[in-house]
């Protein structure tokens, strides 16, 4: 007989999922009600309002897609790209590559703007791509590249799209609630995110928001959206205002309790306070790592506070360190991805995981494991350096 599964209590400091708040875990286990129950419909309306706050938008079409961040990505592309469309795609890590794949699967032509992994998207190169491809109807880029820990200038890129009469598709899976994100003020058109990064929520849901211009483009499509499940015109029959809330698919009722709770928590804390908390814990972690003798992989001005890429010291066994952290300290950190595999660790401080306690846990565990491996580090220096920057 197979028995019940009881996972250990890990500390999740990788690229996601990140630690889930106990309040959110409590919410998931509340009684399931029908997905067309009038009380559930009320909850859906509250979620839309709370998501508008998180995204800083008044977009009517602001909803959670019932699937992970990758589905939110796909929802943006399948609804906005028609066969033959030219899309400028910026790539400076893993996720830009997936955007290209999405464009091509929709029958579009992807014009790539490539930047080195570890660098932000170049606004100048993107401007040059528009000059070369005036037929481009969309610009797609990642605001916070989780594969490298780099932030790009989303405001400038969205403005550039507008100047060129193109709509923007922005990946904010890791940025939402972790760093400033102003959908309306920046003029972003199709924006998707995820629940398991800086929202302190369980994985599996993708908040999305579409500007009125994006909605108009969707309504005027000549070709049917290739995906039935992600076709926003159909989804709106269930999530839209002033509709009968007709059955489209069964909403993940309990997951949406979780999302609602995490958004209530975000509203209670306030967006600006949440950003400040991510920044403060990031600075303390970096101070500790540098005092230990490690170096950061990304230049200070481009770093994401919620995803810290650290260079793996010469001669250290990457996998052995991560295994020891997990087995001996119940601590998960992320490996490098793609071009950075084996070269960096990715230490997440996302959402509920962005706490002084986790900074201290990570520095303590890493110091113990690295010393045991015989790495040359400054023992005893990390915690005082970090604590000096932790105010609570
Ligand atoms: C995690 C992530 C995704 C994918 O989200 P899933 O929920 O894993 O599908 C997309 N883009 C970025 C930048 C991410 O960090």
TrEMBL record:
Its cofactor is pyridoxal 5'-phosphate. The modification N6-(pyridoxal phosphate)lysine is found at residue 197. Transmembrane segments: none annotated. This is Alanine--glyoxylate aminotransferase family protein. Residues 1-20 are annotated as: Disordered. Substrate binds at residue 346. The keyword Phosphoprotein does not apply. InterPro entries: Aminotrans_V_dom, PyrdxlP-dep_Trfase, PyrdxlP-dep_Trfase_major, PyrdxlP-dep_Trfase_small, SP_NH2Trfase/AEP_transaminase. Residues 26-337 form the Aminotransferase class V domain. Belongs to the class-V pyridoxal-phosphate-dependent aminotransferase family. Pfam families: Aminotran_5.
